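The methods section describes the discrete structure representation at length, but only in general terms. An entry of this sort, consisting of the sequence and the corresponding backbone structure tokens, reads as follows:
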Amino acid sequence: MTLSPTLSPERARALVSRFHSISVLVAGDLMLDHFVFGRVSRISPEAPVPVVEHDHDEYRVGGAGNVAHNARALGGRVELVGLIGHDAQAGRLRGELMTGGMGAEGLVVDPARPTTTKQRIVTTRNQQVARVDFEDDTEAAGDVERALVERALRVLAHADVVVVSDYLKGSVTRRLVAAVVAAAKARNVPVLVDPKIPHIDYYAGATVVTPNHHEAETATHMRIRNDVDARKAAKIFLDRAGCQGVLITRGEHVMSMLNPAGEAHYPAVAREVADVTGAGDTVIAALALGMAAGASLAEAAQLANHAAGIVVGRFGPATVSPAELLEAFPEHSTRA
């Protein structure tokens, strides 16, 4: 059954107008995306690989940082908690976060690991040649884990919503999630989790967990081909994760939601799909802001669905502005 009627433009406007006053804690695995752009005109005589003549470099925040970037683009005030190394990449990452208007006071330095960095060699025609990963995915422990928990609780004391962005890179631990969930529950603050299945037992008590299609299939040991399958998978996932609600993002096709109030399925609203990269980050950012603004899960899911419909029409990780999100709703007037 559908939980609510279609979100009206008036209700969407009321919710989105509150985004600028919402404080968001994003806790999770931060990454630095380093793009090395160049031209390819020949094959190496040393091996059958292209020779890339360097043109320029670009840096972007990735992982939990991209969730934060999406929340900031939608108008939220964002603070990040996660691990970085004691290296040049950490300085670059801090700089990118500050430039993007995101708080970096919650970052914890672990000298024993590098700042997680994805270095991509890309041609000037946006064709990826290779990727080099710099990372240590050992789960945080000891003093480092205690520092993560302390920073998270400090930020949570004035946050309106929490997003846990788990990429299995070491920042998200059972102790961290348990501490965040308990503190958030005491303040009636929603906790949303973008999960990784090996950590599914960590997320008990979370308000909403947002697995993608493949993660939901892996966790439930079943195929999801239609809404009926999605309903069954969501129920199994909800029970296994011990969370209050589940939102399964099914690629460019549909989103399926289940919580104690019922279920709903939201068909994709994208006019044209160019790239689904980072769409999950957009979904959870919009969902979090919507819920913090007073939306029901069903209403917030509709905001997230429209936001995702915008970003999948663009190449690469993209963000959505409040104005763009509102324009996605029928009968919206920019004069209002």
